[in-house]
Amino acid sequence: MSIPPLAALRAFEAVARHLSFTRAAEELGMTQAAVSYQIRLLEERLGTPLFLRKPREISLTETGALFARPTVDAFDLLRETYSDPSADAVSTLSISTVPTFAGAWLSQRLGKFQMSHPNLAVRLETSDNIVDFGREDITVAIRAGDGDWPGLETHALMDIEYTPMLSPDLAKKHDISRPADLLRLPLLDIVDPNWAVWFTQMGVPLPACPPRAGLTLSTDLHEARAALAGYGVALLTPRFFRFELATGSLIQPFPDIAKNGRAYWLVYPKGRRNRPAIRRFRAFLLDEIGSDPG
């Protein structure tokens, strides 16, 4: 099948990105009827609907979603290719990342980056959900995973590492001379599979059922606060809690650190890789991590 008309693809890309005929029409400088006509032409050519039209919203059909990602990426690449190479169209750098990385490492460094680039506004959003760059106003994201995200440029930042930590008051109440001794204490978020990774590395088999009921919290930051309050042992990343370890408000009973094969990655659509704002932020992150002893 030959490539559909560019006007129809352009309309489809805008509607798929905004999930709104109205916003797409405003962006393209067209009437809503003209955008709808182009979408209808494309649907007739493909022989299948691309959007589900509802009273107050639209959504992509399965076929629409299949075509949307490469179409959005292609137009993103075209916009990047034909933009002024000496100018940066991005006036706001919108960063999405998981709460733990934001709160424990990134947020205290973003001020330094923004002060070095005073003409660039920086906005940080935190979420455990994966960003859809085609639909959300996000410039870059920092994700936890294995780095396999088709269509995205990826840069490894740091490995995800874990080790148990607890408050000194809780540690004084128990004899913790061997890793197996931790099983007698309340383990925060015991269903976290990383507990099994750490205990297995230490040669300690976990019981088939959790040794006791316990707290399950949504982020490492919350688990750290619960550990600081003496409610249990948290599995945390030492790099993120250096201050607590240095001041003794948390202790690390064993030097052993486990890795789960995952890492934090800076990601963004391939079509954006030459944007000056992204290049600057990428260089800043890599410099900060390079100077961070880990």
Automatic annotation (TrEMBL):
InterPro entries referenced in this protein's UniProt entry, alphabetically: LysR-type_TF_proteobact-type, LysR_HTH_N, LysR_subst-bd, WH-like_DNA-bd_sf, WH_DNA-bd_sf
Domain HTH lysR-type as annotated: residue spans: 4-61
GO molecular function: DNA-binding transcription factor activity; sequence-specific DNA binding
Pfam families found in the cross-reference section: HTH_1, LysR_substrate
Keywords, in A-Z order: Activator, DNA-binding, Transcription, Transcription regulation
Entry annotated with the keyword DNA-binding: yes
Family in the record: Belongs to the LysR transcriptional regulatory family.
Protein name (record): LysR family transcriptional regulator, glycine cleavage system transcriptional activator
UniProt source species: Paracoccus laeviglucosivorans
